[in-house]
Amino acid sequence: EKGGFEHFMLKEIHEQPDSLRNAIRGRLDFNLGSSVLSGMGTSARDLAEIQRVVLLGCGTSLHAGLVGEYAFEDLADIHAEVQQAAEFRYRNPLISRSDLVVAISQSGETADTLAAVREANQKGAFVMGLCNVVGSTIARETGRGVYLHAGPEISVASTKAFTCQVAVLLMMALKLGRGRRFSRDEGMRLAQEIDAIPQLVERTIEQNDRIAALAERYAASEHAFFIGRGYLFPVALEGALKLKEISYIHAEGYHAAELKHGPIALLEEGTPIIALANDIPGKDKTLGNVEECRARGARILGVVTEGDKEAAEFMDDVIEVPACHPLVSTIPSAVALQLFAYHVARIRACEIDQPRNLAKSVTVE
Ligand code: F6R
Q: Residue 223 needs a FRET pair 20 to 30 A away by CA distance; which of 10, 97, 116, 269 works?
């Protein structure tokens, strides 16, 4: 059932090129430079009336939402915000009919996300589900939305659902963007980039053995910091979540600029810093922060764009991801960090598929 892999998590990491193909298939319109997401179920006029996108989720799904926030703002010029679902439901959320609320949930059963959907429905928002499990409660109660088609995710730690969530959010943003300022040419280019995601992930997974060898150098750590900026900030959060939940190393994800506002006090000789330094806007600033960490003795593992020697020079160890659109680069980067977390946890002999205290689906608040 694990298809020859030692753990479901590793199997699911390797399934990602196929999961992504399934999530993307038939949903890109290369001629119009747009996407076809019939599940969004609205006429062009309705979509034009959307003034704000509110993305809801918990855990890994929340992190996918954070990438979506950038995508909606940058591609569609729509104000977007992410709210942790429990926070949303208890805070008297200001919601109107011109809001598109996207509930992101792999299982479609997370109690807080479901309650947030009910709250948003009650307030008259336009609510959509982004679920993996077909017929799940959130998928049913939202009535419209887009399925991930990632296939069943067994491992408690979410992997393929995350990358498919991001891919679908990019396609949603592309669709909304094309109704607004995003030109056909730009749309066509991005559609091609999205279409290439499965190959980018394949190439990242090819580095599995290298990442496994590298993980040896970090597996005895007690703490780790993941840093990134812009599109890669959510990836830093997700990388830290993956590492902590399966390896039990205390890992924190920080915006690279936040380091000097406190966390830098914790750096000692050899403290691991995992720096997301792909070639995207803000890279140089992140490299500056890496330099500050090095000066305090930290050991730096950099995720950098293939062939970026300049960035690699700042690092002690490097994982390369293929060059691609900056928003798209969140996906191969996240895959690299999934493999890193997996191998660290394997070396530490952890219960990878069933970490202590965790359940696959959190159906109580
Ligand atoms: C982390 C993880 C959890 C889930 C969260 C939401 O690897 O799996 O953080 O992402 O419990 O679950 P869903 O997406 O099913 O609502």
A: 10
Quote the ligand 1 centre to 271 CA distance (angstroms). 28
ipTM above 0.95, yes or no: yes
- Alpha-helical (H) ranges within the chain are 8-14, 16-24, 44-49, 59-76, 85-90, 111-122, 137-142, 160-178, 184-195, 197-205, 208-215, 232-247, 283-294, 309-312, 330-347
Amino acid at 116: A
Q: How far apart are CA 19 and CA 108, in angstroms?
A: 18
- Cβ–ligand 1 contact at 245 (below 6 Å): yes
Task: Report d(CA 28, CA 167) in Å as an integer.
Answer: 11
The predicted model scores a pTM of 0.97
What is the distance between the terminal CA atoms of the chain, rounded to a whole angstrom?
A: 32
Q: Which residue has the tokens 């749309």?
A: 187
pLDDT tens by residue, 24-75: 999 999 999 999 998 886 666 678 889 999 999 999 999 999 999 999 999 9
**Structure letter (DSSP) for residue 156:** S
Nearest CA to ligand 1 atom 7: 157
| Pocket lining: 338 vs ligand 1, CB cutoff 6 Å | no
d(C-alpha 279, C-alpha 252), whole Å: 23
